[in-house]
Queue: 2 jobs
Job 1
Amino acid sequence: MPSSPLDLTNFSSLLTEEERMLQEAMSDFATQTLKPHIQDWFDSATLPAKELGPQFGQLGALGMHLEGYGCPGASAVAYGLACMEIEAVDSGLRSFVSVQGSLAMFAIHHWGSDEQKEKYLPKMAAGEYLGCFGLTEPDAGSDPASMKTRAVKDGDEWILNGTKMWITNSPVADVAVVWARTEDGYAGFILEPDMEGFSAPEIHKKLSLRASITGEIVLDNCRVPDSHRLPKVNSLRGPLTCLNEARYGIIWGALGAARDCLVTTIDYTQTREVFGKSLSNFQLTQAKLANMAVELNKSTLLALQLGRLKDKGELAPHQVSVGKLNSTRIALDIARECRTLLGASGITLEYSPLRHANNLESVLTYEGTAEMHQLIIGQALTGTSAFR
Ligand code: TGC
Ligand code: FAD
């Protein structure tokens, strides 16, 4: 944790020199290049995605933990630390990185052909092509198995029909990885926006993740050559394997947002005077700060343990759920508690906690809602599936 007073367990001593240097580099980039703009982006509900792509690419943040094809091949822990520093500015920015690297690029890297990898991954790693990942539909979110989007084979082509909803970056994507039901399972397709029958209208009026572009993907008899189908998977294991990756990034990212709330709030309580002395001098304030710091520190240690397991290739999906559920719940609690300490000032964009809290409502929901992760953990504990 770069802000050392908050590192109550000497967490940073558990990192390698290389991991510490990477965290610092990400923190510098996030603080100097992203943070000065975040209030405006959030306020105007926009993100200069096409400009940010090459900047993140140059930094090695896109497909950071993937090997080859222009990707840095960093460790899972290094990738987690990067997510933490980026989300300390805003969850929308970490989403940008997650969707590109952990979802769209990972899908191609893991399930794609050599030709598909050569064609798309280097440009995506450089941020020259932006990717999105279309799984959710208007009537199929937590239960992707019930998706209605259909792909029907017609000679050497597939004809796709259906609608994907809540898709990060779909209106600006050059590459859309879209999942559809087929005659014998589920398939992933790499779509490009100029394909006939493809459109991606933007979703407006969001109260959360405003510094992130969200849209639909509408497929109206969209004809796709078979060479654009991901050849190595024909079941839901395809998209769900990708979700493990993005959920892992959130474990770290959400704690970055929580840390920023706490840093902002400790600073505020030291300068705000109430009843003749600074707010930080009251026992109730210190109890709140202490409780939040303890939860944040415990959660960061958990993230590191899960990261080390991932680097050893031993991280099971239900363990990812433990981290995703914990980090998002703790981060949201911290953001809300921090907001109380800021009083009325806390409802403005000048201070980050309410912006983070609003964002964290999405983070709690996407990549599997809190309830889905409870059910995944429940299944691991009892051996019984309670989804249906
Ligand atoms: P189920 O029958 O259990 O499994 C179907 C197939 O998938 C395999 N599988 C997994 N594989 C890898 N990782 C996992 N975590 C897996 N979970 C299951 C399973 O072995 C099976 O394989 P096969 O080959 O035998 O067919 O599936 P189910 O239909 O019962 O669903 C289980 C459930 C509910 C846990 C799953 O559907 C789920 O996770 N639902 C939540 C959906 C979700 O998280 N959507 C996220 C959409 S993407 C997004 O939100 C991006 S936000 C982006 C941003 O950061 O901005
Ligand atoms: P629902 O599935 O309708 O759930 C509603 C409520 O019911 C939740 O509380 C849920 O936990 C509960 N529930 C559902 N099933 C059960 C059950 N069996 N038992 C108990 N409770 C249950 N998706 C993508 O594919 N790609 C993206 O890039 C993407 N980006 C997103 C960006 C944003 C900003 C947001 C908000 C969402 C994004 N999503 C994306 C969609 C996201 O993954 C879904 O919103 C999420 O999976 C939940 O689906 P839903 O909204 O349909 O909720």
Job 2
Amino acid sequence: MNSIIYQNLGMAETHKNYIDGLWQDAATGATFKDINPARNADVIGNFPESGVEDVDDAVRAARHAFKKWSRRPAPERGDILRRIGDLLTERKSELAFQMTREMGKPFFETKGDVQEAIDTAYYAGTETRRLFGRTVPSEMPNKFNMSLRRPIGVCGVITAWNFPVAVPTWKMFPALACGNTIVFKPSEMAPHSGALLVQIMADAGVPPGVLNLVQGSANAGRALVEHPDVNLVSFTGSTVTGSKIGETCGRMHKRLSLEMGGKNPMIVLADADLDLVIDGLVWGAFGTTGQRCTATSRLIVHEDVHDELVENLRQRAVALKLGYGNDDDTEMGPVINQAAMDKIQSYMDIAKDEGAEILTGGKPASGEGLDDGFFFEPTILTGVTPEMRVAKEEIFGPVLSVLSISSYEEAVQVANNIEFGLSSSLYTSDVTTAFKAMHDIEAGITYINGPTIGAEAHMPFGGVKGTGNGHREGGWEVFDFYSETKTVYVDYSGQLQKAQIDNVDD
Ligand code: UN1
């Protein structure tokens, strides 16, 4: 990593949209500034503040490209996906460095983010040889029934900044594998990572128009969702925005996948291996500075082990090395921006008002290397009860709420007492309890003896309740989302056969 030298020359580069194979400015020429959350003086660049006109150009390009791209043999599309995987592998360190610079998580984490994209590329590439339909017996003689997959059309991809490469690829690679074309709007907090990913995809041979990049904020996102020629929307972000997108897509009959908030519980029972728990907790709660939708944000711990666990955790939390993620020894980076700092700080007041205790943290971190960035101390809230806001609302920062329980049944009840249902975890040495929990916990993902983070690219990913709308990313299920089922009947009997009539005697 140290071999990569970055110098801010004080002249912020101006970046462009990528439409129909050409890098171009927003129609209005407006831009927004992107800064390093750990070193605020480091300006990463200015990016186009796109509007309706830019989105319209991008959608037109994607619609035009769809004709050819959708007709290419799927394994040929797979070849390009595998080449993307190769290029991501080649440029892994370079890309991870820029991602860390832009969104803050440590370099070892952004390398993991890129690796998730690499895994997704090879997985999707291979799936292009396995986009199965079915053949099914007909109820009539000399008739052949089958289902096959068709691409859907133009996909609007809107993503968050915390996994600025992996999450867009969860959406774009299966979309491309199935023969769709894309207009991609990355988060305005991670436009550079988005642009670098698009460049890699273009370099790997994704043809002009098949993938288009439109930078910008809510306006650009709204224009994309509302565009009548966008057939499908895939969104990762806040529940408030997701609900609005859901209303529009419902009204306009668009296919929609939503990945939204989480308030993910880790249940620790009295028979758990506490050393294992501690490692999992530090990683689950403070990895990515708690800014994962899968982050462990509630510790639901048996009263018999509560005090020991919490004290051990406190010691580990205060020892975490905060800093710029591209410095070698950094364990936890900054939060993304001032608004995130303010939001987290406001939850400290809410916690105190509601009677919780701030065991450690609870304020911005200061000291050498921390004063020109958005650093917040790893925070543990104890004495939290299930009805408190800090037990129910997503804070999206390095804040863990600790709730004490006295039985498995109570733990499950507390774990389920939220509007979200993304990830969850249970630490126990009892296999019977573990298998019960797999069914009892209301979440799309349950880890046994592991923290709530760490999803693998080839496994379905998504949540229940307020977290999602029933779809899954990743794994084999995502290919169903990005393709339409066509049912085909071939009658070779040479005569008219009437289903449900000719073949049933009353
Ligand atoms: C997210 O936070 O939006 O399971 C995605 C994990 C990662 C993906 C997180 N592989 O934590």
